[in-house]
Write a structure and sequence with these properties.
There is one protein chain. By secondary structure, the protein is mostly helical. 79% of the residues lie in helices and 0% in strands. It has 8 helices and no strands. Helix 1 (2-24) crosses helix 4, helix 1 (2-24) packs antiparallel against helix 8 and helix 6 crosses helix 7 (146-163). The radius of gyration is 16 Å and the shape is globular. The chain starts with a helix and ends with a helix.
């Protein structure tokens, strides 16, 4: 019960943070920029592209790891896609930022929110979002450390985002380099909290 609660709450917070970084309009994270670019250039909602790209990555991960696709991850990306559309099309639909200062504040708040959400959603060890699994698959296939694998994955997403004219900017660089440390700040706290709840249950 607690694991499922952490998973759902984490994804709700994470997707709200992602939506804020997109709305800040200073450059989204590489994968988010790819989804926004695809939505703008081809059509469909951003959340729909989260699901489509996630499905493609799920199959790619299975190929790289020489395993069967992790079908439960499909549930994760469907939840993420639906939540991003909810935040973007319902809650933040008329959310406009008039000044650069407000854009910067919303970008930072969004990034911290993503870090918080990720730190919570990762605790139950449920199927990862395919983007996170892709990083681990690259680590395995290229026989490199996690930091290099993450960098390679981000560069691939960045190139694809540029090809579809996704929102790449200074915010993209800030998110790329600050997201890891941001997650790490929150992760130990929620790890202890979940373990405590499980022991007391």
């Amino acid at each position: 019960m607690y694991r499922t609660l952490f998973f759902i709450i984490g994804l709700i917070i994470l997707t709200f943070g992602v939506s804020l970084t997109i709305k800040a309009d200073l450059g989204a994270g590489a994968w988010d920029a790819l989804n926004v670019g695809l939505s703008t250039e081809i059509g469909l909602t951003i959340g729909s592209w989260v699901i489509i790209v996630g499905l493609f990555l799920m199959l790619m991960n299975a190929y790289l790891l020489r395993t069967k696709p992790e079908y439960l991850a499909l549930l994760t990306i469907m939840i993420v896609g639906a939540l991003i559309d909810f935040w973007m099309l319902v809650i933040l639909k008329n959310f406009h930022l008039e000044t650069l200062l407000l854009q910067i504040i919303v970008l930072v708040v969004g990034m911290v929110t993503v870090g918080l959400g990720a730190a919570i959603y990762l605790q139950p060890k449920y199927p990862l979002i395919p983007i996170d699994q892709f990083m681990l698959a690259l680590k395995y296939r290229l026989k490199v450390n996690l930091m290099i694998a993450k960098t390679v994955a981000e560069i691939i997403a960045l190139i694809l985002a540029l090809l579809v004219k996704g929102p790449i900017g200074i915010g993209t660089l800030i998110i790329t380099f600050c997201m890891g440390p941001c997650i790490q700040v929150f992760y130990p706290y929620f790890e202890k909290w979940l373990n405590k709840l499980i022991k007391e249950a």
